[in-house]
């Protein structure tokens, strides 16, 4: 069965391009050029994923994101020319699963789509062990391995990495990490950076060219999903 994607975008050049690209990948694509068209589409069709442009003619994409998140839990990837960090953080904190900046590469977008769809499937399963290239996490035993060898982590390092594994391939904002690990009133970004630096030293072969833990500057971190490569 084809997976169904709703593209909310008013630029005909992009919609024509996406129709070709996603059609070649055998996705079933529906296009809405306004926020109201998108909301109407949801009344008659079920979708597996949404691609949402923020610059819509009738409603701001951020406001539409808020509406969609209140109504449903399917993956939402922002595709936008808005490139400032505050906008990205706001969208991710409001529940977007990912944020791709225009212009974007075809392979990058397709990889983000595969990751978001896979993550949605994993959320419905009971996670016990997840393998990502040479890294493996056992949630039941609370252990992490690289190439079969146990990595010794502190309690907070494990909690951070476990959260990143549960959000594999997605950007996790600084505030989300601090809230989940140190509590809702935490604002100690320096401690987070120190922990991330220590984790990198333990899981990366070369900390200057990380394979796994990617910094999204000004936004947060992403645990790279090698399974889609």
Description:
The chain has 229 residues and is α/β, with parallel strands linked by helices. It has two domains: 4-123, Response regulator (Rossmann fold, 3-Layer(aba) Sandwich), CATH 3.40.50; 129-228, Orthogonal Bundle (Arc Repressor Mutant, subunit A). Helices cover 42% and strands 21% of the residues. The chain contains eight helices and twelve strands. The strands form three sheets. It has a five-stranded parallel sheet with strand order 2-1-3-4-5, with helices on both faces. It has a four-stranded antiparallel sheet with strand order 6-7-8-9, covered by helices on one side. The chain has a three-stranded antiparallel sheet with strand order 10-12-11. Strand 4 (76-80), helix 4 (85-93) and strand 5 form a beta-alpha-beta unit. Helix 6 packs across helix 8 (189-203). The longest helix has 18 residues, at 106-123. The protein is globular and about 50 Å long. The model has no long low-confidence stretch (mean pLDDT 88).
List the SSEs and their pairings.
Layout: E1 4-8, H1 12-24, E2 28-32, H2 35-44, E3 49-52, H3 61-71, E4 76-80, H4 85-93, E5 98-101, H5 106-123, E6 129-132, E7 135-138, E8 143-146, E9 149-151, H6 155-166, E10 171-173, H7 174-182, H8 189-203, E11 213-216, E12 220-223
Parallel strand pairs: 1-2, 1-3, 3-4, 4-5
Antiparallel strand pairs: 6-7, 7-8, 8-9, 10-12, 11-12
Helix content: 40-55%
Pattern of helices and strands: EHEHEHEHEHEEEEHEHHEE
Instruction: Specify the oligomeric state.
Output: single chain
Q: In whole angstroms, how far apart are the ends? A: 22 Å
The average pLDDT score comes to 88
The CATH superfamily title of the largest domain: Response regulator
């Amino acid at each position: 069965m084809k997976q169904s994607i709703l593209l909310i975008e008013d630029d005909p050049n992009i919609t024509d391009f996406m129709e070709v690209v996603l059609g070649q990948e055998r996705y079933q694509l529906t296009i809405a050029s306004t926020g109201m068209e998108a909301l109407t589409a949801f009344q008659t069709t079920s979708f597996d994923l949404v691609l949402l442009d923020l610059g819509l003619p009738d409603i701001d994409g951020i406001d539409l994101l808020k509406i969609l998140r209140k109504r449903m839990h399917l993956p939402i990837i922002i595709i936008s020319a808005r490139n400032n960090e505050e906008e990205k953080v706001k969208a991710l904190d409001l529940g977007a699963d990912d944020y791709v900046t225009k212009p974007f590469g075809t392979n990058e977008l397709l990889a983000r789509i595969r990751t978001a769809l896979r993550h949605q499937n994993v959320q419905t399963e009971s996670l016990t062990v997840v393998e990502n290239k040479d890294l493996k996490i056992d949630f039941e035993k609370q252990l992490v391995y690289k190439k079969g060898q146990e990595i010794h982590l502190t309690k907070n390092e494990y909690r951070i990495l476990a959260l990143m594994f549960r959000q594999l391939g997605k950007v996790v904002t600084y505030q989300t990490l601090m809230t989940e690990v140190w509590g809702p009133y935490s604002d100690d970004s320096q401690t987070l950076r120190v922990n991330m630096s220590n984790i990198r030293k333990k899981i990366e072969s070369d900390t200057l060219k990380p394979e796994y833990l990617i910094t999204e500057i000004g936004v947060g971190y992403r645990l790279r999903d090698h399974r889609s490569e």
